[in-house]
Amino acid sequence: DADVTQTPRNRITKTGKRIMLECSQTKGHDRMYWYRQDPGLGLRLIYYSFDVKDINKGEISDGYSVSRQAQAKFSLSLESAIPNQTALYFCATSDAGTAYEQYFGPGTRLTVT
Amino acid sequence: RKEVEQDPGPFNVPEGATVAFNCTYSNSASQSFFWYRQDCRKEPKLLMSVYSSGNEDGRFTAQLNRASQYISLLIRDSKLSDSATYLCVVGSGSARQLTFGSGTQLTVLP
Predict the structure, then answer these.
(1) Along the 110 residues of chain B, how does pLDDT read in single tens digits?
(2) How many Cα neighbours within 13 Å face the side chain of B108?
(3) What is the widest separation between alpha-carbon atoms in chain A?
(4) Cβ–Cβ gap A40/B43 under 8 Å
(5) Which residues of chain A form beta strands (DSSP E)?
(6) B48: enclosing H helix or E strand
(7) Which of A80, A76, A79 is nearest to A107 (CA)?
(8) Residue of B8, B46, B102 with shortest CB distance to A101
């Protein structure tokens, strides 16, 4: 089984809808991250969490919210989706001791029409 | 100016060729440096860390020049399986955040 899983893997939704992307990990890592990837822009950090009680905004948090339900679960919500949130979304985890080495989930391809 | 800049390519090279990728970063306080590999429509995976003294892992050699804020990756004897996008990644800050370049696309041709 994969160490970092994301659901759904693909999603098409309409403008204005609320959508939640979920991430689970079995690596036992404390740190979890959400990124989005757009062509030509690389991965950009949306939110990150160092433990269940610690949530931090990343470079592009506007329009997104997160919830760290447990050490192993970190979900990303789009309260009212807009077309420019169409992107590939990745969840990642890292261990506090080797924080720079991040392990990524398979990604969620989100299309907002 | 992007914090981490890479030539997007694409680089199309024949099998067996040597190819080099370059990357520059703007934050002089950056602490750690990496190359990640990303296959088409897949997640990024750590390829190797980059040290000032230079480091080698099989056919891959990475170099860091802190004075010039420049990172390189050299791939020798290219294989078809090396075809991927190579991401230059810089770590910095007390939160140990990673900043990703937009990637350099490599295609190794038979």
Answers:
(1) 678 999 888 999 999 999 999 999 999 888 899 999 999 989 999 999 998 888 999 999 999 999 999 999 999 999 999 999 999 999 987 777 899 999 999 999 99
(2) 18
(3) 41
(4) no
(5) 4-7, 10-13, 19-25, 31-38, 42-51, 54-57, 64-70, 73-78, 87-94, 103-104, 108-112
(6) strand B44-50
(7) A76
(8) B46
